[in-house]
Amino acid sequence: MRDCLQFYIDGKWVDPIVPKTADVINPATEVVAGRISLGSVADIDLAVAAARKAFPTWSLSSREQRLDLLLAIQSEYTRRHGELGDAITEEMGAPKSLAHGFHVGLGAGHLQTAIELLREFQFDEQRGSTMISREPIGVCGMITPWNWPMNQTCVKIFPALAVGCTMILKPPQLAPFSVQILAEILHSAGVPAGVFNMVQGSGSVLGTALTTHPDVDMISFTGSESVGVQITKDAAETVKRVGLELGGKSAYIVLDDASMAEKVGAATAAMMGNSGQTCSAGSRLLVPSARLEEAIAVASAAASTVTVGNPTGNVAMGPVVSKGQYDIIQQYIETGMSEGARLIAGGPGRPEGLDKGWFVRPTVFLTTNDSVIAREEIFGPVLVIIAYDDLDHAVEIANDSNFGLAGYVDGLDVETCRSVGRRLRAGWIGINGGFDFHAAFGGYKRSGNGREWGEFGFHEYLEIKSLVGYA
Ligand code: NAP
Ligand code: MG
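A: This is the predicted complex of the input protein with NAP.
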């Protein structure tokens, strides 16, 4: 049992003002794995006051002080890598290899990137007689989801620490364990009191307390579109900056010169990774009409060979995070079948041999872009294949979406990949499997308005001041 019953406020572990707890369920076993305390508005008030009090000193700290802190965090993070991985498997069901690999690794990557950038980052820049000074925005409220708990927390707190902000983190109720360890890491590394604070509990209570708080200068949110809209409204009264990283329904375009066996296979496996619970997943696979049957055969074989089961073992896919998510995904699979999509792999219910845990069958449909399962984010291991006639048609389908988080273009001719990538209305385009911690990550359209990762993540947390007549 993992108990996360205290909050981290003003450099100390403290009890909640009003004691109240909630169970945390292991999605692979459906058994209670631990408890968290559910904080109240009064706990948030204390955390915001601590962050406010710490801001004047931390915002004026030197680059070297902040670098020293990030380096100390890095050695603690490395030391506790294994514990973080185990916690992620237990709280949200990622297979051990994925949890210890990419999950914890993404957090480490954002930390290393923040360290590299902080060494060089130009906070001041002269333009004519004006000095443009980039200054920390202030006290930041951070609200994060459960699907990549280390990635989505680290991508916010390390840039914010690097530029001199103070913060209050509200972790997801469904995945609180790894973030609890992260708070212990920050404490051991010597983060000054009040610079980082964490209160566990419900989004509707704590999230709202943060978004409406007059002493919070900015909200950084990753999660669903509906909550993103609510947060924007709640933050409007106090004119906060709001950074939103929301959902997606991203197109994965395989060009007609590509090997279907390789690229459709890779796209299908990628979709099933993390049980499909990735905002930037390439969940609409666009393939050339002329090679459709070949693509279907590859996708069907690739989905059918994904091993699903106990995430502490050697499997490619664990459960989805909760019964709630399981039910939503099952509903979408039913919708796909009732709206006439052709089922290529998987389907309703749990995979054979698994009668406990929130396991979903890796599922593939052939459909058209106007279907519900092609338009809405399912957030589960469900891939839809859509055929295109030519490049213009592929781009048109890809852009015919309310979302615009990511896109993928795979093909032999690099120039064609690049030009198709430029035509996509989305913020992050992967070409032939590209990956880079220095790339900006964020969405067009209803996928949000923020840009995280790399140097762009620093700018999220900076105000711009003009000292006119400086020179
Ligand atoms: P969510 O409901 O948007 O939750 C994300 C975070 O916001 C959680 O910490 C949540 O707290 C908090 N929250 C909830 N209501 C709030 C409010 N009124 N004000 C402020 N904060 C609030 O997302 P979810 O429930 O985790 O997942 C639901 C759907 O969101 C998914 O199916 C998927 O479509 C989308 N999603 C997208 C991403 C992404 O990276 N783009 C990530 C996760 C989910 P609680 O802990 O109390 O829920
Ligand atoms: Mg929710």
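The chain has a mean pLDDT of 98. The CA atoms of residues 136 and 163 lie 6 Å apart.
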